[in-house]
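Supplementary Methods, section 5.1.

A reviewer requested that the exact input to the structure prediction be made available. We therefore reproduce it here, unchanged from the version used in the analyses.
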Amino acid sequence: MKNKLLLLIGLVTAGCSVRAQPANPPNSIAAATAGMERNPGFLTFYWDAKKGKVWLEIDKFDTELLYYPTLAQGIGSNDIGLDRGRLGQEHVVKFQRSGNKVLMIEPNYAYRAISNDPLERRAVEESFAKSVHAGFDIAAEENGKVLVDLTSFLMQDAVGAAQAIARTRQGTYRLDATRSALYMPRSKAFPQNTEFETIITLTGDSPGEYLREVVPTPSTVTMHQHHSFVELPPLSGPDAYKPRLFDPRIGYGGIEFFDYATPVSQPITKRYISRHRLVKKDPSAAVSEAVKPIVYYMDPGAPEPIRSALMEGTAWWNQAFEAAGFRNAFQVKLLPPDADPMDIRYNLIQWVHRSTRGWSYGASIIDPRTGEILKGKVTLGSLRVRQDYLIAQGLVGQFDTDSSHVNELMQMSLDRLRQLAAHEVGHTLGLPHNYIASTQGGGEFGRASVMDYPTMVAKLKGAKIDLSDAYAKGIGSYDKWSIRYGYEQFAAGTSEKQALNKLVQDMQATGLSFLTDQDARPEGSVHPATHLWDNGANAVDELQRVMGVRQAALGNFTDKKIPAGMPMATLEEVLVPMYLFHRYQVESVAKVVGGQTYTNALRGDGQAVLSVVPAAEQNRALNALMTTLDPATLAVPSTILAMIPPRPFRYDPNTREVFKRRTGLAFDALSPPETAAGMTLRMLLNPERCARLVRQKALSPALPGLSDVLDKLRDAIVKSPFINQDGYKGEIARQTERLYLDQLIKLATSKEADGSVRATVHEALMRLNALYAGSKTTSPYRYDYHRWLIEQYRDSPDRVVSVAAQAPPDGAPIDPGQEWLPDCDWQP
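The structure derived from this sequence is encoded token-by-token as follows.
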């Protein structure tokens, strides 16, 4: 017992003596960084050139700041999406010390309690997870500051480049640290932000086609990634930003979160719009200059005359800000030579090159706590203007001894760029797409907003095509209302909520409204006036007009559509957009069938909520679509077929810009008709559209139903006057008939189609089978083949091999968008 007691006393004494010994303090920062290059700023850092390390001095503990990565130098592939200037996700973070370690922690702003009660806020904070982005060992400290090694944090694939490569099936790549390094010429510290840049190398095996096109050694992909640490605005006090509430009747991107301090009788989800901070110098004046104007800077890498056109289009937004009560509050300047485009102080319009034409897009860095836009970032793909020029070339090009028409082609292309610049900058001001705007705003072609996707307006003047009014010049009427909603300041004592509601109602009284991507992009979407790449107030009328322009373009198509000295086979690149000139208007008209007109109405605001498209208009749309399936419409003129030889050496016959072919090197005369007919059939027989047709017939027998549409297609296709004729048009008719059968069988076996749709289509197939069995024709073997297809479907539907129509050559991008971006094609 005595020995145990002595042992216990000894252990306690030893423990006390250990605690009493002073710990070895870390080195001072001055001593640890001796001989290093010091970069003072928002976050001061030190560069150790001998060891290739960056050391960060942290003196802002538990203070929120913004971190986000950027791809400073990309890889040049539109398909993969790793473009120069691509923004990564922003994160609110703070440094928190725990002993000899510092954690970089991201709080969870998706769940909050907007309350003065600290315990209520704490309950929410402790209910949801946080994210620790990094942990650092403290290497030195002095006067409340600590020094940590930031190198390993910077040397990561922060923008997810390897994931993007894998997602697009271009191979499995991983970071190679031995071929990566810090890039100090673009690592700088400023008073409100600190920037770092690194050279990142990914290595992998089995690179895909897209990578092989743009990387010199595809197994090794090197790019530059940028890291930004930015001071955040205060959340309280006189300099605090005031969030503005979202209204679904007028378009704004922004933030949303759960507010658990909300009374039970009110919605728990809060939605704020995203917008720049803009304050009047004289709040009492109807029109005033801004305390700090919004300035966008143009990438000087864009050549003239493109640069000037882009700056002119961007400057259109000043018209909208004037309507909101600001004078000269929106400005456009050329980026100074010594400015860093990654610096958050510069709203940037960046000119980006890729190996193929691709999307442009507008993104923003926002404060996730409030929705305030801190930096607007526009990316414009440089090759897009060449496609615009190509389309103008097909419409009005005449390459003979007189070259005066070239100015007309270029002017239309520059008009398109002006509109494109305004559109993309609009995204960075907080605005999403408004796809109903092309049908509103008055005039023949609407044009109420640059935030729509307009296609060029080509008009027939006699036998000639005129492009003088191809694109709108200036901001739209809807754009002015939307900027007023986001940026207008109201007199002291005014209820902002009531003032904004009145503003929206006043806008609606002018006939303007807002519908966006979810309403327009899906092929099965329902609104008859909300589309991409359309013009005009009525989709059916516009299709008829567009078909006239298409006919004129094909009728005037000669070898003079390309300059002398170009291979004759390259006429096909010019032919494609002319032959498919109606492709997007076909989509618009298809949405009239089974369509429903609706608004984002609020209870009590007086808007019409929902109505079905009248039967007469649906039938008019069906008749218009039938003309697009007419072999006379689908046939490529013989004069054109005689002009396009097989592709010469080193002119790939399978590029994205020409028709797919089943004839080897020879131009496939049946491929364009197959492509165009397939587009009409696919749109019209979309499973969701077919389901609506079944239901609308059940609710209102006067409306066309799915069986009516199938009968209409049967009469136009199977009973076409060309179906039993020899020659080119007869073969087109029979090819369209096979496409129709394939589409019916595909629909009848589709898991996306419900039972009522499949049953109706099954009945149509059985009726076709009976029709073929009882037909007396000069082509019995063709009918035998069709009956065999139908019987194969009936006996073994799981074994039916459907042959899809040839996919069309790339159409979009004719405007922005980016399929790999979240939420369609823009980032709020």
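Confidence is low (pLDDT under 50) at residues 1-23, 814-828. These observations are discussed further in the main text.
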